[in-house]
Amino acid sequence: MKLTDGSQRLARFEWQGSAHYGRLITAERQDVLELLAADPIRSKAEATGRRISLDDVRLLAPVLPGKVVAVGRNYADHIAELSLDTPAAPRLFFKPPSAVIGPGEAIRYPAQSREVHYEAELAVVIGRTARDVPAERALDYVFGYTCANDVTARDIQREDGQPSWAKAFDTFCPLGPWITTDLDPTKLDVRCEVNGVERQSAGTDTMLHPVASLLAYITAAVTLEPGDVLLTGTPAGVGPVVPGDEVAVHISGIGSLVNPVAGR
After folding, report:
1. Where in the chain is the domain with CATH 2.30.30?
2. How far apart are the C-alpha atoms of 96 and 236, rounded to whole Å?
3. Looking at domain 68-262, what is its CATH homologous superfamily?
4. Are 75 and 233 in contact, with CB atoms under 8 Å apart?
5. Are 258 and 181 in contact (CB under 8 A)?
6. Burial class of residue 56 in the structure, from the number of CB atoms within 10 Å of its CB (0-12 exposed, 13-18 middle, 19+ buried)
7. Cβ-proximal residues to 25 (8 Å cutoff; 6+ apart), any chain
8. Closest by alpha carbon to 249, among 135, 144, 107?
9. In what order do the strands lie in the sheet with 246-251?
10. Backbone angles phi and psi of 52, in degrees to 5
11. So what's the pLDDT on residue 80?
């Protein structure tokens, strides 16, 4: 799945009126995008050699998933802050692909909600068709990792008693800024800031169900295809945002995903 040996940062971006794929490289002491001939997740992506300044593009969501599988209650401190029970098995739900937005795009309040929360999460991007994958080989099916915000209408979730509808609204799945390959998903730091103030901070080593175990559990029942995304849960510190706020998700080894919050 790699273009070259070593970690890669792979982006999807708008340039000259259309969407393209590229990898970030350092040239003359600055990061630039080297244009790729195709989607690197779903096809062999040759580098074209053409280089484009980051200042000349608009970053898009780095992947267009066929489905987004998400995990709830995967950090003990988050379970405690919401006074919930710890599930024996992973608690799973789906977010629709229509919820996905990219860096800089606005998270919009739905008309049905008065309490929208941020949830910083590590996102896993699948690189190979995965079915009945054992945990010890699960990471072989991962293309890479990106930042995610599992935005939630918390008032609706309380009323429903389940997460799916409250997390399904358009703009409720920001992803980005790019996909980083060849990371150890058990050794990353996940942080969230709202208007520059830190609200969440935890290591992925504190997940109740690590990435490999989640993939094994999911693929025993559901086939994951290249480009599908797994959201791995959020740590403690979730809370509301209002129009005018700015939410930033930072993950070590990946980068920062920043989105403004807008009204209806």
Report:
1. 9-59
2. 24
3. Fumarylacetoacetase-like, C-terminal domain (3.90.850.10)
4. yes
5. no
6. exposed
7. 31, 32, 33, 34, 51
8. 107
9. 107-108, 255-262, 246-251, 189-194, 197-203
10. -130, 135
11. 92
The yes-or-no verdict on residue 3 having pLDDT over 60 is no
Kindly tell me if the per-residue pLDDT of 68 is higher than 90: yes
Looking at the DSSP assignment, which residues form a beta bridge with residue 179? 10
Quote the longest CA-to-CA distance of the chain.
Answer: 54
pLDDT bucket at 84, cuts 50 / 70 / 90? confident
User: Which amino acid makes up residue 90?
Assistant: P
For a pLDDT cut of 90, what percent of the chain falls above it? 90
Domain 9-59: give its CATH code.
2.30.30
| Residue 209 · residue 54 · CB < 8 Å | no
Q: Give me the mean pLDDT over the 63-80 stretch.
A: 95
Report pLDDT digits (tens) over 213-248: 999 999 999 999 999 999 999 999 999 999 999 999
Residue 183 in contact with residue 145, Cβ under 8 Å? yes
Angstrom distances, CA of residue 195 to CA of 105, 150, 247: 16, 18, 7
**CA 148, CA 101: separation in Å to the nearest integer?**
10
pTM of this prediction?
0.96
Residue positions counted in the chain = 264
Side chain identity at residue 123, one-letter code:
A
Residue 8 has a CB neighbour count (10 Å cut-off) of 20
pLDDT tens digit sequence for 22-53: 999 987 788 899 999 999 999 988 999 999 99
